[in-house]
């Protein structure tokens, strides 16, 4: 048991939790000045003013936070972090007007990253990936989702997942994304993945709890989505959908029980209304919209309709080559008209919920005690790109 003392202001985010991530406001920061926090076995046992610390905790180990502010740590809920090579040359092509699908058809895009990732040993891939994890942690991230998807065969998808499970320093949630892209006949590829690779991967990695696919024109469709959902049963899954065009994947994913829908850029108003009836979190990834120079999701309509919204970098070598949380938050505020409180909730409580973690994102009793310290208040975050004033992260 530990008692963290001398906290200038503890931002509990109790209001976000009380509202279950719906329509957050600045009042929901629920700050406590001159605070203390008791942590027992990784969870919050007590929070309040230090002057009111119960006597039974006064003999516990004390940690002086030296007048710092304390915030719940961030959850980065959508990354393609384990990959080889880069796609810098494609950036110039995009600036010249080439589309995502045109680059993909010419052998670039995901296909190039698959080729580069296959060349690298698991040991080298782990070294490269760990450096990226360390960068996320330095920004206050304590829970990180990491997808496969750059293997296209069992051996190389397993290599990516092996690396994801070996990453250290924070909690990593690996996601199996075999239905990311394909070569040859699509139906044969889907059959191979669903009927052979999927059960073998679950057997190889018993701790594998999350699955994903890319529903988009030229990739996979809602029929593939339904088949995957049947194979998974009650296992967690998320879906890339409606990113480059309208395909109906977002609503269909929610109907099938997806924990989250990723991107959801091209939605109809009636679909937004229907999404509000499900607990599915909509993960918005404005970094990809920026780099692809496409429209941004209608965050304002989603939130106002009562949809839970999360944010993430979508860090990957092609469509969103950034790990900068500050940049994502600024895009959310400036381009998607999200309030600062909505950004905070999206990157903490809602991001955790999108991964199926329902006891993280607020510093109140029985919640996971992941937090970071800062000299700054909430208003100093997600305002200046490249300025992200996290001092120390406690996982």
Helix content: 25-40%
N-to-C CA distance: 15 Å
Q: H/E element string?
A: EHEEEEHHHHEHEHEHEHEHEHHEHHHEE
As for the CATH topology of the largest domain, it is TIM Barrel
Give the domain tally. 2
Tell me the β content: 15-25%
How much is the radius of gyration in Å? 21 Å
| Mean pLDDT score | 96
Count of DSSP strands: 14
Q: Output the number of helix runs.
A: 15
Low-confidence stretches: none
What is the H level of CATH, i.e. the homologous superfamily of the largest domain? Answer: Metal-dependent hydrolases
Task: Please name the CATH architecture of the largest domain.
Answer: Alpha-Beta Barrel
Q: Can you tell me the overall shape?
A: globular
User: For this entry, what is the oligomeric state of its chains?
Assistant: single chain
Q: What is the CATH class name of the largest domain?
A: Alpha Beta
Spatial strand sequence of the major β-sheet: 5-6-7-8-9-10-11-12
Largest sheet: number of strands, sense, barrel closure: 8 strands, parallel
Structural class: alpha/beta
């Amino acid at each position: 048991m530990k008692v963290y003392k001398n906290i200038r202001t503890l931002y509990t985010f109790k209001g976000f939790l009380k509202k279950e991530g719906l329509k957050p406001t600045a009042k929901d920061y629920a700050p406590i000045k001159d605070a203390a926090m008791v942590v027992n076995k990784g969870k919050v046992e007590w929070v309040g003013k230090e002057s009111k610390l119960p006597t039974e905790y006064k003999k516990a180990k004390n940690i002086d936070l030296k007048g710092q502010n304390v915030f719940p740590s961030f959850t980065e809920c959508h990354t393609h972090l384990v990959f080889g090579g880069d796609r810098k040359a494609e950036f110039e092509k995009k600036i010249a007007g080439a589309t995502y699908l045109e680059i993909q058809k010419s052998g670039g895009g995901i296909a190039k990253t698959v080729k580069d990732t296959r060349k690298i040993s698991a040991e080298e891939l782990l070294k490269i990936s760990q450096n990226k994890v360390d960068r996320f942690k330095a920004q206050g991230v304590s829970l990180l989702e990491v997808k496969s998807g750059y293997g296209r065969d069992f051996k190389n998808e397993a290599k990516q997942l092996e690396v994801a499970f070996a990453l250290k320093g924070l909690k990593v949630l690996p996601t199996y994304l075999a239905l990311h892209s394909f070569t040859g006949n699509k139906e044969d590829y889907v059959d191979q993945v669903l009927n052979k690779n999927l059960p073998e991967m679950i057997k190889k990695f018993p701790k594998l709890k999350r699955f994903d696919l890319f529903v988009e024109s030229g990739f996979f469709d809602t029929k593939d989505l339904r088949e995957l959902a049947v194979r998974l049963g009650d296992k967690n899954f998320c879906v890339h959908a409606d990113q480059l065009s309208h395909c109906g994947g977002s609503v269909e994913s929610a109907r099938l029980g997806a924990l989250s829908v990723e991107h959801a850029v091209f939605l109809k108003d009636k679909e937004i209304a229907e999404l509000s009836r499900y607990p599915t979190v909509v993960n918005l990834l404005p970094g990809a919209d920026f780099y692809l120079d496409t429209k941004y999701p209608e965050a304002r309509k989603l939130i106002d309709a009562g949809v839970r919204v999360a944010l993430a970098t979508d860090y990957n070598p092609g469509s969103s080559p950034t790990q900068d949380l500050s940049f994502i938050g600024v895009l959310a505020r400036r381009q998607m008209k999200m309030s600062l409180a909505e950004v905070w909730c999206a990157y903490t409580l809602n991001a955790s919920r999108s991964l199926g973690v329902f006891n993280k994102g607020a510093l109140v009793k029985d919640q996971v005690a992941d937090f970071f310290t800062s000299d700054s208040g909430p208003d100093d975050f997600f305002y200046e790109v490249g300025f992200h004033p996290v001092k120390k992260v406690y996982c």
